[in-house]
Design goal:
binds magnesium ion; 2 domains; binds adenosine-5'-diphosphate; eight-stranded mixed β-sheet; single chain; MetI-like fold; 648 residues; 48% helix; alpha/beta; five-stranded mixed β-sheet
Length: 648
């Protein structure tokens, strides 16, 4: 018990994901923006203690002094006031107004959005129509009207800018909240008796906060510009107070004779807005959950392959459809390396079905996705090995060839058909698209073929189901549609990743039978991934058992199930309930698989294995045990028929 807790804590501490700050500093432009902004803000904050001249002290004798003359670094304006001093004090005012206006707009707008989106119905209607009304007026006109009503002045300009920006936050946040308010975790919170206010605060708000921050960071620069605009028109800061906009306005009068007077505040506005926008973009990237796991780059269309990949000497075996040797796929996250697949060998003959079996997290899906380069990079990287497919090494082929193979000669069926089928297209349209992506046929013919496929996967009433959207089909039918899509281009290999896990038992049996029949009819090779020995025994000719990224045992299904050599396989077999033997005790496997970024030395299963001895923990265990057609990676294998002393 305590060991498990300690393990959990350790895993948390060393999770290896770089912090948001590190990610932000990895982005050079954002770092530049941040540095400029910090410099500007610091200077503005320190204005009272800097040795500056009085920004409002006029001196007609030295009016329009050029920069670097008479002790005025940036020269003087038309009234002889020191430009440097006015610039720094003016920046202080502009920043304060811009930031406050943004915060007010963000707070008011987000609150309206949250309430409208969560409450829905009439409250939503009333609030949103009010917001629409505000959006119906041209933006700057509305600000001008508000200032006209409130009277010119800096504070009123601030209110005006804040008010005209409320709709952007309200619209954005409402849209998100509407989607969230109907999600199951909100229902769960309601069922737990939380008040609406608490739900908005603790369930909805944390989910929309990144969007608020992103919108905020990208609008602050804009708001500083707007404040400057109002001041430029004489509606914001009133003389003699300086802000960047009013300085621009004063410079305009002497623009052609002494341009530096307007250039100085103009450049300052430029730098502030630029730095805030660069920083805002950086913050958006860091807060985007899809980019969180690794570097700040979007995943590429194909998994990266290590430059120094050692392909291994084994020659391509033409008698096999798939011949994988020593495949190693890693995730490089921060400084840690997760060895999700650590040297996997697989071979599948034409028409054969290989069951790839293992606990959740053992690396089955990553193995399957590596085959056609579908592991997201970064952080994914194929570090080594070769993937022989009908004599070709898939790690060497061009991107174009790989695209042709995907969905063509190699087809996938995934676990959750609702997630893989497009919700906005009918089953028929998606089948037709799958066919036309690889075959040069017109729509009418593709439709004919699609219909034939729907019948082949035994979808009743296929004609009508062609025009059904995925949400109208039951789970079993959806998975049949996925299988039809996989079959669309007569693949040589079908990779089915837990295709029946999301289905109930009777439907699961039907889908398994269908897959089995189809592959026998067509002679298609199948890589069938599952965590369930019960399922694998119904379809697979051979099994490969995977643990912590490596194959630990392989052999014909019947032999492996009857007489496994590896203790892990034995335990998996013992987990399968047998119909008609209600008294048999099912033993759960104690402990958890190791974290793949901290694999133990030696056998990865040793910490959970009742037969483990000191030598199991010393070095890499080879795939050495050979018994009949069974091969296992164990140095203390079970004898045929030997039971496991679990010592429970
Ligand atoms: P399963 O056998 O359940 O299909 P997977 O192949 O999905 O397991 O995962 C194997 C390991 O790889 C797990 O430890 C998982 O955390 C890790 N992993 C999978 N995908 C990613 C990813 N995109 N980034 C980082 N780690 C990943
Ligand atoms: Mg998986």
């Amino acid at each position: 018990m305590s060991a498990v807790a300690a393990e959990g804590r350790e895993a948390k501490a060393g999770s290896g994901r770089p912090s948001s700050i590190t990610l932000l500093f990895n982005n050079r432009l954002a770092t530049f923006g941040l540095s400029v902004l910090v410099l500007v803000v610091l200077t503005a904050l320190l204005a009272p203690i800097l040795p500056l001249a009085d920004p409002n002290a006029t001196d007609p004798a030295s009016r329009l002094t050029p920069p670097f003359a008479d002790g005025h670094i940036l020269g003087t304006d038309a009234l002889g006031r020191d430009m440097l001093s006015r610039l720094i004090w003016g920046t202080r005012v502009s920043l304060a107004v811009g930031f406050s206006a943004s915060l007010i707009a963000a707070f008011a707008g987000s609150t309206i959005g949250l309430v409208a989106g969560y409450a829905g119905g009439r409250t939503d209607q009333a609030l949103m129509r009010f917001i629409d009304l505000m959006m119906a007026f041209p933006y700057i006109l509305l600000a001008l009207a508000i200032v006209a009503i409130l009277g010119p002045g800096l504070i009123n300009a601030l209110y005006a800018i804040a008010i005209v920006n409320v709709p952007f936050f309200a619209r954005n946040i409402r849209g998100l909240t509407v989607g969230l308010a109907r999600r199951e975790f909100i229902d769960a919170a309601r069922l737990s008796g939380k008040s609406s206010l608490a739900i908005i605060g603790t369930e909805v708000l944390p989910n929309v906060l990144p969007t608020i921050v992103i919108t905020l960071s990208t609008t602050i620069g804009w708001m500083i510009l707007e404040t400057a605009g109002l001041s430029f028109l004489g509606l914001g800061a009133q003389p003699p107070q300086a802000d960047l906009g009013s300085m621009l306005g004063e410079g305009r009068k002497v623009l052609f004779t002494t341009p530096f007077v307007s250039l100085v505040p103009g450049l300052m506005i430029f730098f502030i807005v630029l730095s805030i926008n660069l920083l805002g973009d950086g913050i958006r990237d860091v807060l985007d959950p899809r980019l969180r796991s690794g570097a700040l780059a979007r995943p590429s269309a194909r998994t990266d392959i290590a430059e120094d990949r050692v392909a291994g000497q084994s020659s391509a075996r033409d008698d096999q459809v798939l011949d994988v040797k020593d495949l190693r796929t890693e995730f490089r996250i921060g400084r840690s390396i997760h060895k999700a697949v650590g040297g996997v060998d697989l071979a599948i003959a034409p028409g054969e079905c290989l069951g790839l079996l293992g606990e959740s997290g053992s690396g089955k899906s990553v193995t399957a996705m590596s085959l056609t380069g579908l592991v997201p990079s970064p952080p994914g990287l194929i570090a080594g090995g070769r993937i022989g497919f009908l004599g070709e090494d898939l790690l060497d082929v061009s991107d174009k060839r790989l695209r042709n193979l995907r969905g063509g000669d190699i087809a996938y069926v995934f676990q959750d058909p609702l997630a893989t089928l497009h919700p906005l297209f009918t089953a028929g349209e998606q089948l037709i698209e799958a066919i036309r992506a690889h075959q040069d046929v017109d729509r009418a013919e593709a439709r004919e073929r699609a219909l034939t496929l729907m019948r082949q996967v035994r979808i009743p009433n296929a004609e009508a189901r062609m025009d059904a959207y995925p949400h109208k089909l039951s789970g079993g039918l959806r998975q049949r549609v996925s299988i039809a899509m996989a079959l669309a281009n007569d693949p040589k290999l079908i990779i089915a990743d837990e295709p029946t896990t999301a289905l109930d038992v009777t439907v699961q049996a039907q889908v398994l039978k269908l897959l089995d029949d189809l592959r026998k009819e067509r002679g298609t090779a199948v890589l069938f991934i599952t965590h369930d020995f019960g399922v694998v025994s119904e379809i697979a000719d051979r099994v490969a058992v995977m643990y912590a990224g490596r194959i630990v045992e392989t052999g014909p299904t019947g032999e492996v199930m009857a007489n496994p050599a590896h203790p892990y396989t034995r335990m998996l077999v013992d987990c399968v309930p047998v119909m008609g033997e209600p008294d048999r005790r099912l033993s759960a496997i104690r402990g958890r698989p190791p974290a793949v970024d901290k694999l133990p030395k030696g056998c990865a299963f040793a910490p959970r294995c009742p037969r483990a001895e000191a030598d199991c923990r010393r070095g890499t265990i080879p795939m050495e045990v050979k018994r009949g057609r069974i091969e296992a990676r164990c140095i203390h294998p079970l004898a045929p028929g030997e039971a496991l002393e679990t010592g429970a």
